[in-house]
Write a structure and sequence with these properties.
188 residues; mainly alpha; 0% strand; single chain
Length: 188
């Protein structure tokens, strides 16, 4: 490929040199104008470029084939297969590690969920017990309040206790006389 480019570059240089020679001082006496670029390209295309293209058409496929053969020789099939085998083994190891990591993460999540469910169930059982205790206490307080309310509706009875005196006492006598006759008796 490099040879073809070099050959094409040489041919372009030759065409430029020919164009310059047509403009040389010898041709200065000639009053004809310099042909334009299209004319030069048309002439070059007609003759030299076709010859160069034909030469490239013959030599280029062989050069490409030789380059491909050199490349294939450098990377022979058994070597490439060994490299591919090693890459597949490496990929399989990495996939296995990813699978282990995913499994460990899933198991960790399951353990976390189990712990969460256990905590929730224990908390709910404790909450139910607390609610039952509060309900029992409220029921006892309600019955006590109802008992007090029912007693408030009844008439109030008060019993006053008097000090006892020794001996037999006449129930029909007035207590005032007895107190006057016994000045040493304690007064209540």
């Amino acid at each position: 490929m490099a040879e073809a480019e070099a050959q094409l570059y040489r041919r372009i240089q030759e065409l430029r040199a020919r164009a310059r020679s047509e403009r040389s001082p010898e041709a200065a006496g000639d009053t004809t104008t310099m042909p334009d670029l299209r004319t030069i390209l048309a002439r070059a295309e007609a003759n030299e470029l076709r010859q160069t293209a034909a030469a490239l058409e013959q030599s280029l496929p062989e050069a490409v084939e030789r380059a491909i053969e050199r490349t294939m020789d450098e990377r022979s099939t058994p070597r490439r297969l060994a490299e591919l085998r090693e890459l597949v083994r490496s990929l399989a190891g990495q996939m296995e590690q990813v699978n282990r990591d995913l499994l460990a993460e899933r198991l960790g999540r399951i353990e976390d969920l189990e712990l969460l469910v256990d905590l929730l169930s224990t908390g709910m059982a404790s909450l139910r017990q607390d609610v039952a205790d509060v309900s029992g206490t409220i029921a006892r307080m309600n019955s006590s309040v109802n008992g007090v309310a029912s007693r408030l509706d009844q008439p109030l009875q008060v019993t006053v206790e008097r000090p006892r005196q020794t001996g037999v006492r006449d129930l029909f006598r007035s207590t005032e006389q007895h107190e006057q006759s016994n000045p040493s008796a304690p007064r209540s």
